[in-house]
């Protein structure tokens, strides 16, 4: 008999320290953090891990759009 497993989605928002550039932030999270996290994720049977990085230019476009539509 197959058993059902419940999944938990756990979103986390990480803000960049203003003392580092966007490139430094992205490089850290994709090249350093992801490598360290991979081992932890595997040990804890995590089935998925995704990072989304939103560059300043995109955030500015979104802010303009948000203001335009009220």
From TrEMBL:
<dbReference type="Pfam" id="PF07110">
    <property type="entry name" value="EthD"/>
</dbReference>
<protein>
    <recommendedName>
        <fullName>EthD domain-containing protein</fullName>
    </recommendedName>
</protein>
<comment type="similarity">
    <text>Belongs to the tpcK family.</text>
</comment>
<dbReference type="InterPro" id="IPR011008">
    <property type="entry name" value="Dimeric_a/b-barrel"/>
</dbReference>
<dbReference type="GO" id="GO:0016491">
    <property type="term" value="F:oxidoreductase activity"/>
</dbReference>
<feature type="domain" description="EthD">
    <location>
        <begin position="17"/>
        <end position="57"/>
    </location>
</feature>
<dbReference type="InterPro" id="IPR009799">
    <property type="entry name" value="EthD_dom"/>
</dbReference>
């Amino acid at each position: 008999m197959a058993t059902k497993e419940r999944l938990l989605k756990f979103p986390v928002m990480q803000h960049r320290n203003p003392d580092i550039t966007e490139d430094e932030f992205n490089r850290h999270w994709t090249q350093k953090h992801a490598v360290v996290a991979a081992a932890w994720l595997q040990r804890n049977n995590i089935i998925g891990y995704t990072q989304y990085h939103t560059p300043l230019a995109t955030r500015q476009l979104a802010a303009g759009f948000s203001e335009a539509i009220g």
